Amino acid sequence: MSLIDPVGIPSAATASAALSSPAMSPPLFGLLLCGGRSSRLGQDKALLQLKGPLGAESLLQRGLRLLREAGCGGVWLSGDYPGFAAIPDEPAWYGRGPLAGIASALQRYPEARWLILPVDMPGMDAPLLRALARHGAAHPIGNGVQGSQFPLLLQPGALPVLKRLLGSSERRDYSVQALLRQLDLPLLAADQLLPDVAPEVLQRTLGNTNTPEEWRLYADARGDDCA
Predict the structure, then answer these.
(1) Given this model, what pLDDT does residue 5 score?
(2) How is the chain split into domains, by residue range?
(3) CA dist 72 to 80, 92, 103, 211, Å?
(4) Could you give the CA distance from residue 112 to residue 8 in angstroms, rounded to a whole number?
(5) What does the alpha-carbon distance between residue 128 and residue 121 come to, in Å, rounded to a whole number?
(6) Per-residue confidence (pLDDT) for residue 45, from 0 to 100
(7) In terms of pLDDT, which residue wins out, 222 or 64?
(8) 3-state class of 32 per DSSP?
């Protein structure tokens, strides 16, 4: 598998079928946030590689696979990678960070629930994502995880809050922290989502890698030949 082989590209028909299916109301879609500049890492973090079930896979491929394994009926990128299904930021929201990508996805398919994962969480796994989606199904806005900005499960009701923040003239309102404050999401403890998993494993699951040092620490802890 190459660094950017297309995987899990949903068609318009797939999305339409999921939205109209009585078995999924509302359906669960997945969004992988890949739009950051990776300036602290010094290279595109989405293309960093780990060993996967079929050999080496990029973090981009891994993230899409995990969202599918978590039960998402369609998965998209927020970012520009040829060959992958992506939802571009709405022009009015260009340059406003991950909130622009999240809002653009919710606006594209406003009837869906969205499971949102950034590409720079290499330790994330499908069981935690599935548990988050299951617990968030009962809340009108969604939920998150204590001590971590991501992953998030957002319901359609989150879109008006996103639009209000992105319409602000204050850059501080474009942050994920601002979104979490305004939504007042219920935050679940990781050990509540996965009670049988050791604390140190949960800590690695929720860790992110923004610098070469963080990436190497993750590689060493994983015992893998990361590249």
Answers:
(1) 40
(2) 25-222
(3) 21, 28, 18, 30
(4) 18
(5) 12
(6) 84
(7) 64
(8) strand
Q: The domain 25-222 is classified under which CATH number: 3.30.70.100, 3.30.565.10, 3.30.420.240, 3.90.550.10?
A: 3.90.550.10
Tell me 23's DSSP state.
Answer: T
Q: Say if residue 152's pLDDT is above 90.
A: yes
Amino acid of residue 190? A
pLDDT digits (tens, 9 = 90+) for 191-208: 999 999 999 999 999 988
Q: Nearest 5 degrees, angle CA 32-CA 227-CA 146?
A: 40
Distance separating alpha carbons of residues 81 and 100, to the nearest angstrom: 17
Distance CA 37, CA 17 (A): 34
- The mean of the pLDDT values for the chain is 86
Q: 51 CB contacts (<8 Å, ≥6 apart)?
A: 57, 224, 225
Q: Determine the length of the chain.
A: 227
Burial per residue of 29-56, b for 16 or more beta-carbon CB atoms within 10 angstroms, e otherwise: bbbbbbbbebeebeebbbbbbbeeeeee
3-class SS string, 99-164:
HHHHHHHHHHCCCCEEEEEECCCCCCCHHHHHHHHHHHCCCCCEEEECCEEEEEEECHHHHHHHHH
